[in-house]
Every structure is written in C-alpha cells, then in structure tokens.
Amino acid sequence: AIICINKIDLVDPADLQPLIGSYGRQGYRTLLLSARTGYGIEHLIDLLRHRTSVVAGQSGVGKSSLINAVDPDLHLAVREVSRETEKGRHTTTVARLYPLKFGGYICDTPGIRQFQPWDLIPEEVVNYFRDLRPWINRCRFPNCTHIHEADCAVKDAVADGRIDERRYEAYCHLFRGDPIAEK
Description:
- By secondary structure, this protein is α/β, with parallel strands linked by helices.
- The protein has two domains: 2-112, 3-Layer(aba) Sandwich (Rossmann fold); 115-181, Ribonucleotide Reductase Protein R1, domain 1.
- It has six helices and seven strands.
- The chain has a three-stranded mixed sheet with strand order 3-5-4, covered by helices on one side.
- Strand 1, helix 1 (17-25) and strand 2 form a beta-alpha-beta unit.
C-alpha cells in the first residue's frame, strides 16, 4: 500500500512530517502530491505503470483529480468541496476500473464518509495496528485491552511518543466499535 497525500499545495509540507514519519515507521510508503500543480504526479505515474491499482479515501481529498492528473484523457468528473459543510460531495458514486494510457488500470472509488469494519472482535483489533504490536506483550496483564488498564506498555509508548497518538485513538475507536468519521 502507498499512502498518497494530495493537495499539498494547500498546506506547509513541514506540517505533514509527523504524519509521514508515523506512517514511515510502520513501513508504509507515502507520496506528497498535488493534482492541481502536478507536484509528484510523474512519480505516481511510475508507480502505477503496468499495475492494477485502487484509489480510496475520504470524500473531497481529490481521488478523481489525481486520476485525471495521471491520465487527463479519462476526463473524470470532479467537484469542489462544499463551502457550507467543508466536505466532499460524492462525485464518484460507484467504483469503476479505467485503463491507463501508459499501461495498467486504476479503480476510482466513491469517497468514504465513515469507516467501521464489520465483525471485528475487540480483542483482535490490536493485531491490525502494526505499530502497536511490539508493545502488546509487554503489558503487566496478559489480557490488557490497552484502553484503561494500569501498567500498559502500549499506553506508556503513546505517552512518551513511541506510538503516534492519532493511531492509538483510531485503535481505541475500533476497539469500542465506534465508527471513524470524516474530519
């Protein structure tokens, strides 16, 4: 998986370094991109060439705009983020696979407004967070949920910055069965 961060022309890239560092420590590759300015698009094309890829993410992050930037001949519909709600408008309503002119295929998917996996067993959620795994067997209690127990190595690692707080919050939401909503 590659994590693409679009619209970097709207932020100071230095502000993204903690996020990029967090994903990098987990083994994820990240790309900084701007569909509007073309920044990073050639590198993305090199990664997509002769592969079948899926673009997924929240509404309004510019998934279809990125696809148009890598292959302008596709002419995918795009819209601005709503000024009233500051959220995407679900321009893409069904997943669709497109051939790329330079070889390969790309699947454009509808935007995600909230994420809540089905049938998760709370005690197994920690296994989906590779950055928490090194700490789970260091807790005082073998049945530690890493939510409210004392002497929890996971919570200690969050407190001293070894685990990204946003990742821990996502773990807590999923453990409790809360949906992770669009921000």
